[in-house]
Amino acid sequence: MKGLYHYGKGDPGKPTVLCLHGLLGSARNLHRLVEAIAAAGFHVVAFDQRGHGHSPHAADYELSSLAADVFELMDELSVDRAHLVGHSMGARVSLAAAAADPARVTSLAMLDSGVNVRLEHLKSLQEIVAPLPDGYASRAEAEAALKHHSTVFRQFLVTNLRAQPEPPFALRWIFDLKGIREELLRTIQADQANAFRALRCPTLVARGELSESLLDEDLEELKRLNPRVQTAVIPDAGHWVHVDNFTATAEVVTRFLRST
Q1: What superfamily would CATH give domain 6-116+191-259?
Q2: pTM of full prediction above 0.90
Q3: To which H or E segment does residue 204 belong?
Q4: Dihedral sign for Cα atoms in the order 40, 255, 252, 95
Q5: Average pLDDT for 153-173
């Protein structure tokens, strides 16, 4: 897809790392991690995936199309090979890209994501997305409507609201709510076990110690699928590892990237 919003940090002459955000997110969610990876000696590019942030909405949200966006952006940047770092849905897209064109992927780091979405995690996503209206009359109305979510998650969600006055709303979601409901929630349910098994590039899977989205038993299964995989547990972190324990996440990711 043309026109994907992206920004870069670090020396373009250094090895390139592409960072992919999760569902309902955007490149800005990974800002601190981007800075840390760039400081470790890499050229880092974060981008808004289709239907998210400042990137265009789309009719197609198939995993193969999301993966193709990775390579189209690399072509636009004149990057032949890149390291991929993805969180949640971004990790699943990164895995699909690594499977589709392994020659262009130097390494893969998957943050709190495996090869299948746990039913509980899927249900929680559906429960978040289903009741969302197209917009709100004010930020105060949005805050009140979302007050049942944790403070961190509520703050994360409202970063996706933009002033787009069109009665009865003053604020509208910047992400493609319809596409997420009807397409992306189905897309992320794809079984990627075979793709993971076939990986030959250095691969890291890191889970949050407190995460209910990826468990220790899932890490063991991933190691059975592909004995080459490296695993890590980020202490005192849930699904949002790079938010809950940024320091440990940045250390694990940069150490892995430097080793590849």
Answers
A1: Alpha/Beta hydrolase fold, catalytic domain (3.40.50.1820)
A2: yes
A3: strand 203-208
A4: positive
A5: 88
